């Protein structure tokens, strides 16, 4: 089965968020809404999350899209209305890290279920390869977020904020 036009919009619209998030995580240690890269991440994620609704084939897809929107809007809302609030920066970091995680789960799931074309690596949602990749992403999240928060704390302690 091919990809519908809205499916292409969804895929191509959300795809840039992956390297954008990776870049910010490596460069800044977190997703930074105030940068041009952060703004591009926001728009890519927003397009991807909103366009997930018409292409969703499973109920869990709409749950993931809704959760992604909540965490994305929370993280960027805090950036806009509480840029200097100490607690806000931590909540923002957690929220935007979760948004990236929620992007990666369907991205790897769909990639493994569709590629290579005609002979995908995974045909069942309970396949050990798929579950292993998803588990690894979750492990990265639960290890990575505390590391991000620690780095943010140290950065703020040095900067006097």
Descriptive terms for the model:
globular; 161 residues; 6 helices; 0% strand; mainly alpha; single chain
Topology, pairings included?
Blueprint: H1 5-14, H2 17-28, H3 36-55, H4 59-81, H5 86-114, H6 128-159
Describe what is shown at a glance.
The protein is mainly alpha-helical.
Specify the number of helices.
6
Which structural class matches the secondary elements? Answer: mainly alpha
Mean pLDDT: 92
The main β sheet shows up as:
none
How many structurally independent domains? Answer: 1
Structural description of this entry:
The protein has 161 residues and is mainly alpha-helical. The chain has one domain (5-159). 78% of the residues lie in helices and 0% in strands. Helix 1 (5-14) packs antiparallel against helix 3 (36-55), helix 2 (17-28) packs antiparallel against helix 3 and helix 5 packs antiparallel against helix 6 (128-159). The longest helix is centred in the C-terminal third of the chain and has 32 residues, at 128-159. It starts with a helix and ends with a helix. The mean pLDDT is 92.
């Amino acid at each position: 089965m091919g990809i519908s036009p809205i499916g292409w919009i969804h895929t191509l619209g959300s795809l840039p968020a992956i390297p954008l998030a990776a870049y910010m995580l490596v460069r800044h240690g977190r997703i930074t809404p105030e940068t041009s890269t952060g703004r591009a991440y926001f728009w890519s994620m927003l397009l991807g999350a909103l366009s997930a609704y018409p292409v969703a084939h499973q109920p869990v897809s709409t749950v993931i899209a809704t959760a992604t929107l909540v965490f994305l809007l929370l993280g960027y809302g805090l950036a806009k209305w509480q840029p200097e609030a100490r607690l806000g920066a931590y909540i923002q970091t957690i929220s935007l890290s979760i948004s990236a995680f929620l992007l990666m789960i369907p991205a790897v799931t769909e990639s493994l279920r569709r590629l290579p074309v005609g002979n995908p690596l995974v045909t069942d949602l309970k396949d050990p390869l798929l579950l292993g990749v998803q588990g690894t992403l979750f492990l990265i999240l639960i290890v990575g977020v505390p590391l991000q928060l620690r780095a943010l704390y140290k950065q703020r302690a040095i900067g006097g904020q």
